[in-house]
Amino acid sequence: MNGCRWILLGILLVAAGTRLIGLESAPPGIHHDEASNGYDAYALLKTGQDRWGHDWPVLLEGFGRGDHRGALYAYLCIPFHVLAGAEHLIWSTRAPAAVLGVLTILALYSMVSRVEGQAAGLVAATLLTVSPWHLHLSRIGHESTLVPATIVIAMWCWSRWRQHWAYVVTAGAVTGLSLYGYSTMRLITPMLLAAGLLCFHRDVLGWLKDRRGRWAVVGGLALMVVILLPLAMRMIDDGEAFMSRTREVSVLHHPTWSIGEKIQRVATQYIAHFSPNWLVLRGDPYPLQSIRGVGQLNWIALPLLIVGIAVSLWHCRRNRSYRFLILWLLLYPLPGAITHGGLDSPGVGGVHALRSACGLGMFQWLAAIGATWLTSAMTRHRDNPKRYCTAMVVVGLAIVINGGYCVRQYFGVWSRDAWIKSLYQDDLVDALRTIRPHWQRFDHIYISVQTDAEKRWYSGEPYSLALLTLPVEPDAFHNWDKEVDYVRPTDGFHRVRTFGPFIASTETSDMQASFTADPDQAAMIIARPNESFPPQLPRIAEIRDASGAVRFVIIANRDVR
User: Fold this and answer.
1) Which residues contact residue 496 at a Cβ distance below 8 angstroms, ignoring those fewer than 6 apart?
2) What's the pLDDT score for residue 490?
């Protein structure tokens, strides 16, 4: 094994460690979008239906008919659910993201090495490994983690088209599957395909003249079409609901803005994706999507990125890969730029870390080009290879030091922040784990959905956390009576207020009444500490945070010991 392979092995070990270790604690708790994907996977595993009773769906309704999310991530969770078992569903919900994150790094190294050389491949892989943007995406059970994975893996397969027909067929399959992931891929995948054809059309035409190449292209395209047929049928059958979320967040569909205001908004948000504040200083303003104290990229990547862009622009006429990278750079902001709410409503649109995740891989590739060009220009490595190697080691150490700081911020600061724990409802997860052995003995279980104005605690779709954490058997959930409140009736999003014995409520009086209405009924309340209950009601547990502050009080009228 030569030196580069040893370095690559070290990079992959670091990538695996930073993505697989402590998945249940960093991020703390679980976000309701993750829980939705994880429980749908559990329901599919147990019954062949999602939680709403649809047989092997291609799109998941999630939190209502307006929440059409691709089902691919949920299907990827199923083998990990089998491996981990029902008591570790949070881990197995996030495990596909972690594994795909490592595979993306390996695919990026292989692709960049083929085009730019092994040194550039190692730089790109290292930058992606320690990227705060990619690190976070690789540790959450959200379908957006499929964006960089499907793009980079498909491109890696396309880049090896000369080697074997199987790579072309695999590339077609991955490209088709990408549209079953995060919704932005339905916009960016066709655009990247068009950019690839524009840049490499001569290669494609030349390959089509070869008999094996022609059949490989036909096979890849045919497989892609077959994979996309169920999605196309679903869009035709339920187009109104399918497009409801798009219309709700799209700048182009905003009901009150003029054409001029829409153009200005898109242009402003597009430019914001190239701001140093977004890229390397502060990142996404929404705390769930960006690590506090760092940008989307490592700061060391900025000077390398600037040089890499300059080199690519200078040589793009002669180098088709550079031409494609520039087009990729220009296309990546579009999913975020055409959605409203980003600059004045953090996390809703605009500069949005999930919608703009299609830039991962591209930034690291351009930075690797910059790193190799700088070291080559400064050391004239052809005349002095030792000096060139020394310069590359210095660049590598700078990346590692900066990356170490970002990793420390993620695990040591961001994941332990009280507000982050609140947004991931870490306290509710702890409360649900506390009642896990006992909940089936109760007729009524109230869960407080109070959201504190001072950001001490937060509540969002708590029923999905209960389904996954306990877990509730899918057959039972299918048969339970449910009461649904529509959060935004215009776009079809809802909140499940009651399901079986569970009641999500903010009404303390309703909770108290359950203890006195029927003494034969076993009742439990998972309440916030500011909610007042008669002192004679037994407190069976208190859920506290790291500082010792009480976050939940569990009250029951039955002994659970």
Assistant:
1) 461, 463, 482, 483, 484, 504
2) 55
